[in-house]
Amino acid sequence: MNALSVIDDLKRRFPNEPEYIQAVEEVLTSIEDVYNENPEFERYNLIERLCIPDRIFAFRVSWVDDKGKVHNNMGYRVQHNNAIGPYKGGIRFHSSVNLSILKFQHIKTLSGTYDIQHLAFGIRLRTHFQAVRIHIRNGL
To answer: How far apart are CA 64 and CA 56, in angstroms?
Structure first.
């Protein structure tokens, strides 16, 4: 994997999502060496499968404030990769939330920032890729 070429491709595909691109850039540049040690990852297009969400749900949320005025917000649910368990996260519908920020949060989750044990990123990455490898072997 060449991290810069992957990032350039994602910038072309998602030009209006700077937060998402920033997160992908941070994660990919930090995992490039570990990723390249495992040629089977490239065969299964693992980087794209991990960087691009499986599903994105977007919907309108209408609500009434205390004065009886109706407001509309966009709601989102981003589901990334479920290779190591069920999808994480919930529904977001705050007026300041946009799709780029949610994709950013999910990529940061991939980097292991949620890990309570504070494992080194390389160990977390290997664990995640090993789980994905098991799923690939099982045809999932």
So the answer is: 26
What is the rounded CA–CA span in Å between residue 22 and residue 131? 25
Q: Which residue has the tokens 């920020």?
A: 101
Tokens of 76: 């989102």
Beta strand spans in 55-100 (E): 55-64, 70-79
Confidence of residue 13 (pLDDT cuts 50, 70, 90): very high
> Is the Cβ–Cβ distance between 122 and 41 less than 8 Å?
no
3-class state of residue 85 by DSSP: coil
Question: Helical H runs in 2-120?
Answer: 3-13, 18-36, 39-43, 46-51, 99-110
> pLDDT tens digits for 65-82?
999 999 998 888 888 777
Residue 107 burial by Cβ neighbours in a 10 Å radius (0-12, 13-18, 19+): buried
Model-level pTM? 0.67
